[in-house]
Design a protein that fits this description.
Layout lengths: L10 H9 L3 H7 L4 H7 L2 H5 L7 E7 L3 E9 L14 E10 L10 E3 L2 E6 L4 E6 L4 E6 L6 E9 L6 E10 L5 E5 L5 E4 L8 E2 L5 E3 L2 E8 L2 E8 L4 E5 L10 E8 L2 E8 L2 E7 L8 E8 L28 E5 L14 E3 L1
Amino acid sequence: MEPNSFKNLPSQLTTNILSRLPLRSISISKCVCKPWLNLLQSDDFVKSKLKTPPALIRLMPDTNSTQCAIFEFKDEDEADAESHDLQLFPLADFDIPHGNSAAIYRARQTNGLLLLYSSVERHVYICNPITREYIELCCPADYISILNFGFGVSKLSGKYKVICIIVAGLGSGSTFVYTLGTGIWRRVEPGPASGRTFDFNAYVVCNGNLHWTVYDSAKVQICAFDLETECFGVLSPPAVVYGLAVDVKLIVWRDCLCLYYRLDDKVVIWQMKEYQVKESWTIKCEISIDYSNGFGVNRNMNVYPIKIFENVDDIASVMVYTPSLFSLKNFGGENVISF
């Protein structure tokens, strides 16, 4: 093979090869040549079907920054299946600089980009901790209100959008959308979401839509926001949720929308096998809770599905994270800050 033949490979083939590398090797590969750097930081690489292995990200608020640590998972073949523990290896540890972050809410990610929101500064941050870049967005209006944010990417247009719902206070019920690269917030009609109370900062992304549990009087429903059409819709949860279920939450498992809640002495998890088909709700599992064995007598406590990992201490906000070298500079017109 001639020395220059590899760099002349079609970009699709180069993407296929680089996508199979572990994150450390991909980070090194961007230093090989400028064409590889541009490819690895492009949206085409993010959209490639072959994804980099997931990692774990930990965020801890500090005085003037958010401490960020990223861990790689140990090879699953070497993990201890009986103990159900996954070994983690530190990959990066740094600070995301910004103002007072004492009230930074739990981050959410889309294709390796993080959404961070500080109620103290009332600013929204879109950050890629791998490329050490972030964008600062002001809130859509000078409301003294409680704001609920969501972040996702449209499956058709590929546009990244931030949605802001004013859930309480002045302007309650107003909804705004910010498309990264445009520099402006746009008001959209709430439609069927009007008058409903959103579960605060508890959305999930499934099938290209954002989903919240919402409350209409005492009735629990699921509200979906289509990132392509920018319209709200309402999905029906399992019928049993209208009864005595407590702490109703949404998760995504194996690309399916799931709902879980606490009912009496058990946690019940449902899965919607066919998206938007009410009849496809199926119980996946029921977990019994023994209140006499360490749970005390507080039956009003919240229950969340969690996973215990080794080598991670003092966790403030931890989630599975899909690393990406996608550069925020691809959003033309945004003020990208490097750190």
